[in-house]
Give the backbone structure.
Amino acid sequence: MTDREDQHREDGTTVRREVLGDTHVDRAVAGTTPFTADFQDLVTRYAWSEIWTRPGLDRRSRSMITLTALVAGGHWEELAMHVRAAVRNGLSVDEIGEVLLQTAVYCSVPSANRAFAIAQEVLSEEGLV
């Protein structure tokens, strides 16, 4: 690995921990196998370093976009994690609701319905609703 790749890995790990929390990242790292190691490295260096550290958008905006993209793609297994991340990035419960409400128009009412159910569960677990 080059010094630049090492720096991206370090920066990506820092941002990933700040956004998703130590518990999630520790679990992901512990579950890494020789088969998944390259993928974990790619996610850390590119998603969390190259993208999430760019100056063009703040983390709140990135969280809103991520929530919308996950709903649009039907990636329910990732949505709960990113609802928690959105709270960690400063979105209020009301703002998360507004993002999900907007997805009803652009992604579909059934998708928003599923997203609201997942978000409700997460926000309840966090003691926020």
Summary: The chain has a mean pLDDT of 96. The CA atoms of residues 19 and 85 lie 5 Å apart. The radius of gyration is 15 Å. The helical segments are 3-20, 22-30, 37-51, 59-73, 76-88, 93-106, 109-125.
